[in-house]
Amino acid sequence: MHAAAIGWLDPATLLTRFGGAFLWVGVVFVFIECGLLFPFLPGDSLLFATGLFIADGHLHLPLALALPALFLAAIGGNAAGYEIGRAAGPSLYRHDRRFLRREHLDRSHAFFERHGSKALVLGRFVPVVRTFVTVVAGASRMSRRHFLTWSAIGAAIWVTTLTLLGYYLGRAFPGLQDRIDLLVVGIVALSLVPVAVEWLRHRRDRSPRTDQPQSDPTDQTDQPDHSDQTGAST
Q1: Residue limits of the VTT domain (predicted)?
Q2: What domain count does the chain have?
Q3: Would you say residue 72 lies in a domain?
């Protein structure tokens, strides 16, 4: 995903190409990334850039419009991903294609198993997982009401946090949009932190435990053999 953001998916490039329609491009991308099995779109950086561009006047839109539009895109994408997973069921795991990679499903399934319903909130901030965890929830037959409740909470936190972060940083530091390339790299780096944490945790869980006391083979050889003595005394 995020490597592609350096090219034509870079927010500054999208702003130049689409101008005032930037928000609606972001809405489409967020919808796709949040459920249509295409995890390589720059959702994090687009949310951040939307807030930043509104703050510096490049987007003449109120936050009161941008935030609900992006929220609806996120929750709509989740609903679509859930229905895909629910319809496909366990057969989904037999696929291993260019974008529907078995490893992505396995990682999301493990994340879902570890965190339960909270995975729909925490997974928002983990690239790839936020795309597939909703599909896993559908394949696992989580109740729709339960799914939509937790998914809405996650969407609200994700969209609000990143968009307002971009907005208030843009207001506090005018001209920050001139460094949007570095900001995108920073957002990408932050979004990869949860991936690194999960990888380290998974590696630690799979490593053999070394804190168990090891028996000393010399302990048995150093003990006197009392059986002969007992036999001799009789």
Answers
A1: 41-167
A2: 1
A3: yes
CA 26 – CA 47 distance, rounded (Å): 8
Structural domain contains residue 60: yes
Residue with tokens 């935030």: 67
Cα(131)–Cα(63) distance, rounded to whole angstroms?
Answer: 25
**What are 13-31's pLDDT values in tens digits?**
888 899 989 999 999 999 9
Is there a domain that residue 133 lies in? yes
Q: For the segment 90-128, what is each residue's pLDDT rounded down to a tens digit?
A: 766 565 555 455 555 666 566 666 766 777 787 788 777
